[in-house]
Amino acid sequence: MDPSKMNNDEMSGDAEIASVMGFSGFGKKARTFDLEAIFEQTRRTAIERSQQNPVKKIPDSHEITLQHGTKTVSALALDPSGARLVSGGCDYDVKFWDFAGMDQALQAFRSLQPYQVAAVQHHRRRRPGGSGNAQAKVLDRDGFNVMECIKGDQYIVDMANTKGHTAMLNGGCWHPKIKEEFMTCSNDGTVRTWDVKSEKQHKAVFKPRSFQGKKVVPTCCTYSRDGKLIAAGCQDGTIQIWDRNLSVHTKFHCRQAHIPGSDTSCLAFSYDGMSLASRGGDDTLKVWDIRNFRRPVNVATGLTNYFAMTDCCFSPDDRLVITGTSVKKDEGNGKLAFFDRTSFQKVHEIEVTNASVIRCLWHPKLNQIMVGTGNGLAKVYYDPVKSHRGAMLCVVKSKRKDKHAEALTQDYIITPHALPMFREARQRSTRKQLEKDRLDPKKSHKPEPPVAGPGRGGRVAAHGGTLSSFIVKNIALDKTDDSNARQAILRHAKEAAENPYWIAPAYKKTQPEPMFAEESDEDEEAEKEPEWKKRKI
């Protein structure tokens, strides 16, 4: 190993070991000890020292930015292997990102618009989505629909007697052990568990209650790491925890966890299962001990929170707690704050962007941090030395070049009338064309001269284009006499008998033959009677 490439900690460690072993400098040759073994031991010592400081484990040396849209990224999730990322936002888009398939262009491979997304979470091969809709959808890792939960009856008072949610969903998550089970919480005041194989009805219903026994709306929900406990944060500031197999009474209940009326935006269990972190709408971050759930172990204040889905989570080694802060437009940058779990002092922070930091997660396998912001960005922080795969797979791939079609070496300009099908035939002789036009009755018709005076020969002078002149002209051209109604009807009898247009031939045999009354002397006498004797109709 080259000593010039070592950092300060390693150099100081080497100097200490060299002095103990009897060396006065690095240039002298050891007689009884191997220098390579000494350098390896020094490197391990430096790594152990860095591991004692949790801040040095934060992978924030590099970052990539995924452009989800222009509105708030309200949901963010990674699959357990860390191969694909899912982002959802208030613009009704759900986008799927594949780290192994992306290049430096950082384009999503699939985009859906099911509804406004409130929460997404990956679990093995499926992903549930919670939204402004009352029905949760389950999609596979490629974005295709697997199932959709049933909607409940909103006219039933007892929500336990309905088969599904009746109001907007606030969140959802998968069971950490049972791959077919997931959970949702809604504004109807219930937390429900579901089975992917049974979409017609929920498995169990948990109903949060206030101190007076009234219905309370849960704003977030989560499973414990072993899947035995279900926790829900409510609008009245309480945190209620049930045993998964007992949905009647709560196992743990803290009635003043946060200020009443402030939505608890996130609950997260630690990896050891002993602690619970809660992010409140009262600008606080609290850590609770499950074994003593009456008072929080640590509290951090002054963490602005304007969103009902601001996240908090534990680091993979359970030594840090991270959360995001909110800012108003053009009033600063949103930050990602890191707190020591034991002392709860802010040990590190990252200025993400000039918008609020809402979603955040720290993947244990990739050792990378994903952040969702209020201006439609999804950022991934990583370290080339400490992180594995994930965003490191796509930053090394160059952008694909666009395939351009080969240009023509010579441009051809084609006019429509230059084509043979549009070209008019040339007349070789004018005399022959005139003889053909003479035989054509339309072309050889002599145009009528203009009408002079009021009109003659049934033609009306074109003195105006009014409706009255048009009617007068048509009346003059129509020479039929319809003074006798009977004769006017019988005039069409022969044509109707030969060509029965109005009466189909199928009804010809069944239709009666029309028999018209013949003229009699009484009709003639009635016509000769004076007007005052005629019967009024």
Description:
This protein is an alpha+beta fold and 537 residues long. The chain has a domain at 63-396: YVTN repeat-like/Quinoprotein amine dehydrogenase (Methylamine Dehydrogenase, Chain H). The protein has seven helices and 30 strands. The strands form eight sheets. A four-stranded antiparallel sheet has the order 1-28-27-26, with no helix packed on it. A four-stranded antiparallel sheet has the order 2-3-4-5, with no helix packed on it. The longest helix is centred in the first third of the chain and has 18 residues, at 35-52. 32% of the residues are buried. Residues 426-448 have a biased composition (Basic and acidic residues). Belongs to the WD repeat GAD-1 family. It comes from Takifugu bimaculatus.
Keywords:
single chain, 537 residues, alpha+beta, Methylamine Dehydrogenase, Chain H, four-stranded antiparallel beta sheet, 7 helices, 30 strands, 28% strand, disordered N terminus
CATH superfamily (homologous) name of one domain:
YVTN repeat-like/Quinoprotein amine dehydrogenase
Q: What's the helix count? A: 7
The name CATH uses for the topology of one domain is Methylamine Dehydrogenase, Chain H
Radius of gyration: 44 Å
Q: What can be said about the biggest beta sheet?
A: 4 strands, antiparallel
Unreliable residue runs = 1-33
Structural class: alpha+beta
CATH C-level category of one domain? Mainly Beta
Whole-Å distance between the termini?
125 Å
Overall average pLDDT: 79
Residue share in helices?
Answer: 10-25%
